[in-house]
Write a structure and sequence with these properties.
Length: 372
């Protein structure tokens, strides 16, 4: 087992989160509701007014708003005990509702009062950024790199932007990384628990799980049922409960983020040309995706293979996801961290005291090694 992650690495990751919170507070006269990203469009104003009633004062509104305002609504009643009170204001109830774990944790099951909820949402993501950094640091050490590469999570631009909108992606990715650590340490039960957390926080983490389990299958020639079934059962159970409580149908028509291959990129190109920063960042993101594929095939790890699903997913993202680097970097955040570790955190001096079985395959089948 890898030794405990140094506190100095976790301290730096917490500083990143604190800076995001502090930046929001400074930008909005000390009002934490600015971090939630309530909007000022007609539809978003209904949410802002409802939030104001729950908090007891007006809330800060920012443009069209973003995911955080809907997670705020969900956190007021995360188990949908009274869906007509809060969930009725969700723009896409089924789509939003399936990402249940972040509002459940931030809202303490619905017991956190409205005035305190923006703060508990911020602290939940602060905890998640440290959690993800710790997992990334342990993975970096397994690759033979420095524990400081754990900051490839905290300093991931997608993670930072997700924090800035009070989104669920940080918790989901952090949980997936701990599931990856468990896979590397051959603890299938712990992996199943962490991946269950990941998919309940953000359903698209099934892609990460699928990639990691595919590598496990290639290595062992055995289907990893023990790891895959619990997250699937948990997600399906919540999906059934969600639709029963909302009576909104399947929710397929609520998905707006996907389209024909490469169409979203082509349609967003006009905005990149007009905004050099978007163009530069998105060009970098596009460049690293095929490089991650190459590294995943040459030096397969659970992290790189788990992230490959997001490479495929990026091809199908719609224009609204590709329009700004703010959104696409959040959508493919696992690709960024996986590329950094695969490229820069390999090699270095490791000892048996630091890592148990670094040079051994993740699984015991010699035939499996030959396949990858």
């Amino acid at each position: 087992m890898i030794r405990t992650v140094p506190l100095r690495v976790l301290a730096v990751s917490l500083c990143v989160g604190v800076l995001v919170i502090a930046g929001s507070l400074l930008s909005h006269d000390g009002d934490i509701t600015g971090l939630i990203k309530f909007g000022d469009t007609p539809e978003a104003q209904l949410v802002a007014q409802h939030a104001g009633n729950e908090i007891g004062r007006e809330v800060i509104t920012v443009g069209e708003g973003h995911d955080g305002m809907y997670f705020f609504l969900q956190a007021l009643d995360p188990l949908l005990l009274s869906p007509g009170d809060h969930a009725a204001l969700l723009d896409r109830p089924v789509y939003r509702g399936q990402r249940m774990l972040f509002p459940l944790v931030a809202g303490f099951g619905g017991f956190v009062p409205g005035p305190a909820l923006p703060w508990t949402m911020a602290f939940t993501n602060l905890f998640a950024i440290a959690l993800g950094t710790a997992a990334t640091s342990r993975l970096a050490r397994r690759l033979g790199g420095s524990e400081w590469w754990g900051l490839a999570f905290a300093l991931n631009v997608g993670v930072i932007f997700e924090f800035d909108i009070s989104g669920a992606g940080i918790l989901a990715f952090a949980a997936a990384l701990w599931g990856t650590v468990a896979l590397e340490e051959r603890d299938d039960r712990r992996a199943a628990v962490w991946f269950t957390v990941a998919v309940l926080a953000r359903e698209v983490m099934f892609l990460y799980l699928a990639g990691a389990l595919l590598l496990r299958l290639f290595r062992t020639r055995r289907i990893p049922w023990l790891i895959g079934i619990p997250p699937t059962v948990a997600a399906l159970s919540w999906a059934i409960y969600l639709r029963a409580r909302l009576t909104e149908g399947a929710g397929v028509d609520e998905v707006q983020e996907f389209g024909l291959p490469f169409r979203g990129m082509v349609r967003a190109f006009e905005n990149w040309i007009e905004n050099p920063v978007d163009l530069a960042v998105i060009a970098a993101l596009v460049a690293i995706t095929p490089m991650l594929v190459v590294r995943a095939l040459r030096q397969p790890t659970y992290l790189s293979w788990g992230s490959l699903g997001f490479v495929v997913l990026a091809v199908f993202f719609s224009r609204q996801v590709w329009w700004r680097f703010f959104d696409i970097s959040r959508a493919i955040a696992p690709v960024i961290t996986a590329y950094l570790l695969a490229t820069f955190a390999t090699g270095g001096d490791t000892t048996e005291a630091d890592i148990d079985g670094l040079n051994a395959p993740s699984d015991t089948s010699p035939a499996a090694d030959a396949m990858v």
